[in-house]
Amino acid sequence: MARVLVVEDDQFVRSALIRHLTEASHTVRSVGTALEALREVAHVGFDVVILDLGLPDLDGAEALKMLRGITDVPVIIATARDDEAEIVRLLNDGADDYLTKPFSVEHLSARMAAVLRRSRATATGAEPPSRVIRVGGLSIDPLRRQAELDGLPLDLTRREFDLLAFLAGRPGVVVARKELLAEVWQQSYGDDQTIDVHLSWLRRKLGETAASPRYLHTLRGVGVKLEPPR
What we know:
Layout: E1 3-7, H1 11-23, E2 27-31, H2 34-43, E3 48-52, H3 60-70, E4 75-79, H4 84-92, E5 97-100, H5 105-124, E6 133-135, E7 138-141, E8 146-149, E9 152-153, H6 158-168, H7 177-183, H8 192-205, E10 216-219, E11 223-226
Parallel strand pairs: 1-2, 1-3, 3-4, 4-5
Antiparallel strand pairs: 6-7, 7-8, 8-9, 10-11
Helix pairs in contact: 2-3, 6-8
């Protein structure tokens, strides 16, 4: 079971989350402000953080950036906001997943389980292959989690790196979105928007766009492939 930090200022929602997670045998601590959350994470080891955005002292998006400065603990955003641009920013700033309120406890449980599987697989190791993958000007070292493009390092988030490494390990092969969700996100279902967001940011860092791709090519209704520029 997991050690969970719930960051939520609404007492009703907070109590419901604590009750549900405790009944599922998780160890739960809870706070109502961003500063309390930062103090907790700095002194206690958690497996996952459930972070509300509408906090009284600091917006949750800013709290996420501060959390990412001190820890790699998986963070699931719980928000009533459904603005696509904001969701993109949150994912790019290091959120591992997000849920739009209201959500069911079953949905939260499924998302938590997926995030924890990914986190524990990395920690306990299912280590990636040690060989360096090269596709055109891309060089990817899964073991060191480093990537370069034309000899220059790429500054990738954890999920961007996982996505790039998975596709680069299958150069020229069209990978279905369902397979990406299963292998990169370790989810049997999910929103295609999650994949699109990460592909968009990855393309930007590779110096390309969906309209003018170099490495990443989307085949509408089929999937995605990575291949060297021609």
